[in-house]
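Dear colleagues,

As part of the handover before I leave the project, I'm documenting each prediction I ran so the next person doesn't have to rerun anything. This entry is a single chain, and its sequence is reproduced below.
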Amino acid sequence: MSARERTGYVSAVQNADFMAMRQAGWLLEEPLVDSPKRSWLVNFAREAVANGHKVLIFSYFRAILAIISQDLGTLTSPPLTGDMVPADRQTALDTFVAHDGGAILCAQINTIGAGVNLQAADTVVFCEPQLNPAIEAQAVSRAYRMGQTRSVTVYRLLSTHTIDQLITARSDQKQDLFDRFAKPSAVAVASQDALLTQLIAQEQQRLAEQPADWDEF
């Protein structure tokens, strides 16, 4: 993270604001060149489109998608979000699939559900790790499905020494457990609430114990 992003992140940790912690690497107020996630994504998107790749960019947060849309400009159409009417959403999907050459489609990760076929895409980018690994798997499966003739490359943007790494590690540990849940249950919801509380507490403790100089890492 940049210095300003780290300041925002530390504040979010101290306030136990879990959602702010997850979005801290996407500060619009920070110059693009000084925001590692944003600058990486812009450079990557330009190169991908120039080389004819079709890219799906997923985030849970509308605010992040709005920032990405502003950064990418004409490289992408308006992002798919939960408040779009189904007809507009389908039009955007059809336009992406039919586009000749490289293209970018940004979407809230929970808006493109099962049954949506986007095998025209060969690249998937996750802007932040998801709490439930099954959600990421479903998003990847929009492109990596029967009939796909190309390799599908998946990128996950993670900020070092942040909640991103804790979520990723926990998801790896709990992958088998999450996969056993075919549908939401009271046990699953309770486990999720306990997980959030534990993740915040772990990050507050780590931040309190680490040296003040972030550059040492």
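The chain has one domain: 3-216. The chain has eight helices and four strands.

All the best with the project,
I.
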